[in-house]
Amino acid sequence: xxxxxxxxxxxxxxxxxxxxxxxxxxxxxxxxxxxxxxxxxxxxxxxxxxxxxxxxxxxxxxxxxxxxxxxxxxxxxxxxxxxxxxxxxxxxxxxxxxxxxxxxxxxxxxxxxxxxxxxxxxxxxxxxxxxxxxxxxxxxxxxxxxxxxxxxxxxxxxxxxxxxxxxxxxxxxxxxxxxxxxxxxxxxxxxxxxxxxxxxxxxxxxxxxxxxxxxxxxxxxxxxxxxxxxxxxxxxxxxxxxxxxxxxxxxxxxxxxxxxxxxxxxxxxxxxxxxxxxxxxxxxxxxxxxxxxxxxxxxxxxxxxxxxxxxxxxxxxx
Length: 318
Prior knowledge:
about 325 residues; mainly beta; five-stranded antiparallel β-sheet; 21 strands
């Protein structure tokens, strides 16, 4: 290695060593902020996007260090024409390509029951996002929800993962606004009523690390009076599987938090992975008289051992 390259490498390592590790204390965002999906933008901020709540179609929050978060407001102030008369906007995921931010989400259309997948674009990470004009895919129930866009670093394929029931993936076109011509959805994981937390599976999130594609997913019930929800993980050598699942869940209920789930994973500036997810405060839930649940945002470190991710819950209590 040339001497000047060695000096540059040592300077980079020293710079990373000087970046303090975040010290979050849960919940890092103490408001209803379901299904959080996080990215880091070129402006140095981490942005988190969440399902509708408190009058927002899609919520946005941001942080400099993953520990202290501020709620920014509305990501998509104008509803798409095909869902203008509904208020069911779920599970956004944002990915950046050049100067454009693409937000994949699910919503209920005006004319029929059943959720649709769609995509909106913006020129800034906090929006405003504008819908592309028509859904990518619609169904009769909740089978087409929880999209997650992933660029395969090995093949260059632009993939979209989604689903509540089986979890699926399909290649996107280069413009990211539609599926690639001739592509078909591939079913990756199936629900299994005989196994814990798998009567329903959803909330896919994919990470590529050390030669494995790790597919995080959640199940069963997230949002009723008796929630039962947890985070599982599967891995494969190819982005489209076949996947092997880890037993047991890597994150499930504790005395401190009920129904943890629907996670994203973000690497901090030191290269450490963090799992960001929602959960329910049991005391508030027991006292709640309004319908529905309140899901606040939490974060914990992920560590990898024996080829699998594990949650290091140093900050798992309020």
